[in-house]
Design goal:
Blueprint (H helix, E strand, L loop, with lengths): L1 E2 L3 H5 L6 E4 L5 E5 L4 E9 L2 E9 L5 H16 L4 H8 L7 H9 L4 H14 L13 H15 L1 H20 L26 H10 L4 H12 L3 H5 L6 E2 L4 E4 L10 E4 L2 H14 L20 H11 L9 H13 L4 H8 L8 H29 L4
Parallel strand pairs: 1-2
Antiparallel strand pairs: 2-3, 3-4, 4-5, 6-7, 7-8
């Protein structure tokens, strides 16, 4: 068929049919079983050739037509775009940018960040390999390396990102198989049960350094709060006069104001940081965040820390929250006080009762957090 290629004409194509554009010679659209692909027909050195531009949806008629014009410019210069593309696109690393762009409008920003880390950082050893030469053994070896360095959860998330990438590559005609298929998943166990033992907590504390991530881990251990609440902590959320961390509703999961008493251990960490960084104490030019910015290098920083832990059973950062709650309970903290510290909302804290109970729990929370802070100190005595 011949006609102008537009969104409506493309979407009306029946299976197996091809529409050749009337405004640009050689530019076409072909419907396969499920999707429409844009293509270019051209002649070079007396031979007719075809090259695929991409799938409709990832390309619009206008962007595909512009790409066809660019490819025709190469033909006019005596360059075969099919050979040039084959030379450039033969590696895993070359297609990552285009894949990430195709995902950007379909998934959340946080997911894009994770996929980017998996394919750019974790998969770096694969970047120079031709897509068609990457086999199951290559993938399995890399998965094993990730599991050893970062645990089963990281292995499985990386595996999912790899599999999605190769599925896309198949749809784009870049390869014929998904080499992730048939590789094993790690047993993550029941993540909701993982509590770090006292020896594990001691090992973790000993492995911490003087960097931002180490201070975040210390605060997560000492407070039992969520990682985003501590990683995104602002100076305006710390009341040094009343020794409270005050998280506003838009920073908590349940959208309720959370006033958390600070133990002397938490105060010491934040006091040192404000002397070093806060502008009122000779700091860094007025940055509102305790850690200079909203911290987001979670996986990379944890991978570095885990290497120093020398083979400790895999854990997640959220396990620190569960571990804090469990050890506080073992120290004698009542369940409703533990829930108040964690900012959980259940029977005793819901509705009107929660409003009037806040003041009553403040002293109990402070005593529990101080007892727990002293417990943490005993696990990590000064050298």
């Amino acid at each position: 068929m011949i006609g102008k290629i537009t969104k409506s004409t493309v979407e009306r194509l029946s299976a197996g049919s091809v529409l050749w554009d009337t405004t640009l010679v050689g530019f076409g659209a072909r419907r396969q079983l499920r999707h429409v692909h844009y293509l270019l027909r051209y002649r070079l050195n007396g031979r007719q050739k075809f090259i695929s531009i991409g799938r409709h949806g990832m390309w619009t008629p206008d962007t595909a037509r512009n790409e066809a014009k660019r490819l025709l410019g190469s033909v006019a210069a005596g360059i075969d775009p099919a050979s040039e593309r084959a030379r450039r696109a033969e590696t895993f690393g070359h297609e990552i940018t285009r894949y990430l762009e195709s995902k950007r409008s379909a998934v959340k920003a946080r997911s894009i960040t994770e996929i980017h880390r998996h394919l750019v950082v974790y998969a770096k050893p694969l970047h120079a390999l031709p897509l068609t030469k990457i086999d199951r053994r290559t993938i399995a070896l890399r998965l094993g390396e990730i599991e050893q360095a970062s645990g089963g959860v990281s292995r499985n998330r990386f595996r999912s990102s790899l599999s999605a990438f190769f599925a896309w590559a198949i749809r784009e005609g870049l390869t014929e198989i998904n080499p992730v298929t048939g590789t094993g998943k790690a047993n993550e166990g029941n993540g909701r049960d993982r509590v770090l033992t006292e020896p594990e907590l001691a090992a973790l504390l000993k492995a911490l350094g003087k960097d931002d991530f180490s201070d975040i881990i210390r605060l997560l251990l000492l407070t039992g709060q969520r990682r985003e609440e501590i990683g995104g902590l602002r100076w305006s959320e710390i009341d040094f006069g009343r020794n409270l961390i005050i998280l506003p509703p838009d920073r908590t999961k349940n959208k309720r104001l959370h006033e958390l008493p600070m133990s002397t251990q938490v105060q010491a960490i934040l006091d040192l940081r404000r002397l070093q960084k806060h502008p009122r104490y000779g700091g860094d030019g007025g940055n509102e965040f305790v850690f200079g910015r909203r911290f987001n290098s979670w996986s990379k920083s944890k991978e570095i820390l885990d290497r120093r832990l020398n083979g400790m059973k895999p854990y997640r950062l959220h396990d620190l929250r569960r571990s804090a709650a469990t050890h506080m309970a073992e120290l004698g903290t009542l369940p409703h006080v533990v829930e108040a510290i964690l900012n959980h909302v259940s029977g005793h804290k819901s509705g009107v009762a929660g409003i009037y109970n806040k003041a009553r729990y403040q002293d109990a929370m402070r005593q529990a957090l101080q007892a727990y802070g002293d417990f943490i100190d005993r696990l990590n005595p000064p050298d």
